[in-house]
């Protein structure tokens, strides 16, 4: 299993051996170096990273991939710190990655910041990496997705991917995890509305955090969200949905991360989800579908980048776009004209 | 305004003049012929259709574009028949188009079938066209979108685009209309769950049809859906959402299409929506965004079709896809390899 695959260059051979090896300190350094290689914009780095990634791939897939989202202030860091330490206490190894779309603008990521997870960040059984901070959301998501594979190859059996409630990044995290958890505050009124359209229905589990602040509000919020998830969150075959015991119904639980109450409950629910999804084959199917969707997402992004960079297209794109916006050329006609220029 | 634009071939000149003209019988025939031209798969037809479409474009944009969706059995046809006759009675001209994704499989469309709308289908002020019945959903949606423009140029001031509750076609209809209405049955339990994930939150208006069957159930359903829409349906700037009087909040109303009660209410709500959205500039902004998104949707589809047809890609695609599904090649690596083959 741990024999270094043939044909890998020497530097990557060393990284490979350290990542799949048993020694924790060189392992963490090797993961960090590999992720830096993945994040490099130099084409030769990209090629080396691809070879290393494929060599590591047989060692991946054995973790639980957990997406955690919620608006700023909901207490994600404290929750992940508490959960992470709880899991390490049970013998797990925990990796925390992040996708922060704002970091691609500011150039610096606040998410995954080690200073926010004081105990976890220094623990030998944890690996914390902030969000990649440049590129498109697709590019950032790609590097996080690949970092997740590296962490899995290194034996982290719980990989948490954290993001903030703004819509597109949630879709990206949902597309790379086994379970998508949304953290909410107990006040069911205005603050719940701060989640973007399309985010709540991605949730496999909604966690009402800081539930001890207002127990009645948390109970009301739980009832409301449960009812709404029932109306909105349905997928799969509608005829079998409420008979199939192998189907997971999105759940809503209450916790208080600060007082460490409910983290047990949370993990029990996650484990139950994992069991139901594994037994029904949905976990494996979800991963296969994610891999295929991801391949096509990257192909689409690559095709569109080439299209935009094509000289004849570049000459006409802005002009035709504004003709379309002004209602002087039909959108489908503009698309056909631009496609004719691209060859 | 009605001068025939320069450079249009003779046959299209005639169609143009009939479409924007005042004579109802040749107008309806010309619309039907133009739509047939749009639906043709012959490239020279497509070019002629494009020229005609661009010539008609200055006459478009003055209708209200209304999307109507709901699962089979909810009473869409009866509702559209009642609504259409009501609007014609008020002096409107009504076009009914359809997107039926099942028709691309069966080759025949049940939606938009004239026999289901007995009075409307024979009325001089109405135009009914079933769903295009071949091609991808994207292609079907494109032809419906273009047919809508032709109807607008012909002076139909209410264009209804009908579809059935299966998810992807709803997104397509939402992407070409000013207002998306979802029809529901009053039993808020199991039947509501038959809507696919992601459809309810597209709704600008939910209509509980056949509300007279069970008044209590309809009232409960209305309360549940209203609450759920509040939790899930939010978009725009969350900080201003509940202060901005110019913002439309999705509404839920009850009607009985069979007994013709509530169609007044329905149209009043639609008119109110139109006023709010026009005043705030959101109607115009939605159309601009739709046009631009549509152009890119067609470009993406075109690029992907070329990619799949490329000989070197075609050779490798199936093999690499199965390597990705089997977990032997990382999705991003496969995407890069395939993109390298495409040139």
UniProtKB/TrEMBL annotation, chains A, B:
Stored Pfam families: MeaB
Alphabetical list of InterPro entries matching this protein: GTPase_ArgK (IPR005129), P-loop_NTPase (IPR027417)
A single cellular component GO annotation: cytoplasm
Molecular functions per Gene Ontology: GTP binding; GTPase activity
Protein name: Transporter
PANTHER family in alphabetical order: METHYLMALONIC ACIDURIA TYPE A PROTEIN, MITOCHONDRIAL, METHYLMALONYL-COA MUTASE
Taxonomic classification: Bacteria, Pseudomonadati, Pseudomonadota, Betaproteobacteria, Neisseriales
Species of the source: Vitreoscilla filiformis
Residue ranges the record marks as coiled coil: none
Superkingdom of source: Bacteria
Classification via NCBIfam families: lao, PRK09435.1
Protein family per UniProt: Belongs to the SIMIBI class G3E GTPase family. ArgK/MeaB subfamily.
